[in-house]
Structure formats: C-alpha cells, structure tokens
C-alpha cells in the first residue's frame, strides 16, 4: 500500500509553472529592492551590514509569500490564532530540533576536517576563502554598526532573528517545498528546496545545503511552520553571535 503524502490537501501550488513564475519574481524582486540600498551606500558612504541591507528584501519576500498563500486560500487570521495558541509547544519543539541542528553542524565540521586532512592548511584555506572572507566582512560590519548605534545593531538582530526566518520559511518551506513534495518523495523535494535555499545564500551554499535539507526534514515531521520559523531564528541567533565574536 502506497504511503499517504503528509502534505496531501495542503493549500499550495497545483502546478510547477506557477512555482517557477513566483521564484523568478522573487529573484527579480530581490535585485529591485536592493537597488535603493546600493545607491544609498554609493552616494552617502554609509556601509550597511548584509543583515541591514537585506531588511527590505526580507520584508518584500515575506509580504509576497503571504499574499500568494492568501490567494491559495490560506486564512491568516486562523493561522495566526493557531500559532499564538500553540506557541509554547512549538517553542519546545524548536529547541529540540536545535539539538538536531547541532548534530548536523558537527557532521559538517567532520566533513571539513576530513577535507583538511587531505588538502592541508593551504588547500583548506583556499577552499574556504570565499566563506571566511564573507563572514569576516559581515562580522566587521556588524561591529561597526554596533559602535555607531545600538539601533543599527537592533536592526541587524531583527533582520536575522525575525524577518529572515519568517520570509525564508514562508517561501522555501511552505511554498517551494510543499509544491515539489506533493509530486515527489521526501529526499528529492528536500534536496532541491535545500539547494535553492543554499544557493540564495551565496558563498556559503555548500555548507548550508545540509541545513536546508534538515529544515525540510523538520517541516516534514511536524508540518508546523512556527516550529521551523523558531528553529531558523535560533540558528540565526547562533550565527549572529559567532560573527560578532569573530
């Protein structure tokens, strides 16, 4: 007997064409919304951290994703009431799955250690250079923002811990993953959703691919978006803390 799809009946896209259209619109929206930020930096000499500069992008992606879901028939009034009602339980589940994320991070560290064993210091440094340079640059930008104003640091925290998790989980898990998952098995769907999620994060894509797959696994098990959002927020808090100390 064929196993029932856990997302059967969920309100999502019923054809890939609409998903690809939304994906293309999201990518285009990213560049359009980023343009004013780039122009402000160019003409004023201000230097924003990546988290600050991404605030309008996250707001736009979150708003578009929420509107798309409304068009699919999702009642946000009912959904938000349910989220508030089950906040405590969802938070505990997010903490539990954060332990799983720690195991994923250890596995990634183990793979990197194996690569270092074969390539040596110089080879490993060259391989990770794009990632370390970006992390170092973002850490410096965060520290600079904090030294200027705690408000700017607060904006970075808001971006990383609230806006990014909400926007990315709405699009990558709730819309992208469920659309693919309705027609395919878990691993196929999680891989492609995780890959797109990772690629959208630039140089860190190889490291973030297993994280994206893990987020899909959590959503597959719980089918509760708030759990994913809270877990994503915990992961980003850890990332932000590490970059501030780097």
Layout of helices and strands:
Layout: H1 16-44, H2 50-53, H3 55-72, H4 76-85, H5 87-148, H6 150-181, H7 186-199, H8 205-222, H9 225-245
Helix pairs in contact: 1-3, 3-6, 5-6, 5-8, 5-9, 6-7, 6-9, 7-8, 8-9
Textual characterization of the structure:
The protein has 246 residues and is mainly α. It has one domain (16-245). Helix content is 85%, strand content 0%. The protein is built from nine helices and no strands. The chain has helices at residues 16-44, 50-53, 55-72, 76-85, 87-148, 150-181, 186-199, 205-222, 225-245. Helix 5 packs across helix 6. The longest helix is centred in the middle third of the chain and has 62 residues, at 87-148. The termini are far apart. The mean pLDDT is 88.
């Amino acid at each position: 007997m064929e196993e029932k799809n856990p997302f059967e009946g969920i309100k999502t896209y019923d054809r890939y064409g609409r998903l690809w259209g939304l994906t293309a619109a999201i990518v285009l929206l990213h560049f359009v919304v980023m343009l004013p930020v780039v122009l402000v930096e160019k003409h004023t000499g201000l230097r924003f951290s990546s988290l600050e500069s991404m605030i309008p992008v996250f707001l736009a992606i979150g708003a578009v994703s929420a509107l798309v879901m409304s068009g699919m028939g999702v009642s946000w009034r009912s959904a938000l009431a349910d989220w508030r009602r089950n906040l405590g339980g969802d938070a505990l589940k997010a903490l539990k799955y954060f332990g799983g994320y720690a195991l994923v991070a250890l596995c990634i560290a183990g793979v990197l250690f194996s690569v270092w064993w074969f390539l040596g210091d110089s080879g490993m440094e060259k391989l990770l250079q794009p990632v370390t340079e970006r992390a170092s640059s973002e850490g410096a930008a965060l520290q600079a923002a904090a030294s200027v104003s705690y408000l700017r640091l607060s904006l970075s925290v808001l971006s990383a811990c609230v806006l990014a998790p909400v926007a990315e989980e709405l699009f990558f898990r709730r819309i992208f993953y469920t659309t693919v998952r309705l027609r395919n098995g878990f691993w196929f769907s999680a891989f492609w959703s995780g890959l797109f999620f990772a690629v959208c994060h630039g140089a860190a894509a190889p490291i973030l691919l297993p994280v994206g797959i893990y987020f899909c696994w959590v959503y597959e098990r719980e089918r509760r978006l708030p759990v994913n959002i809270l877990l994503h927020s915990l992961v980003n808090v850890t990332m932000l803390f590490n970059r501030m100390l780097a």
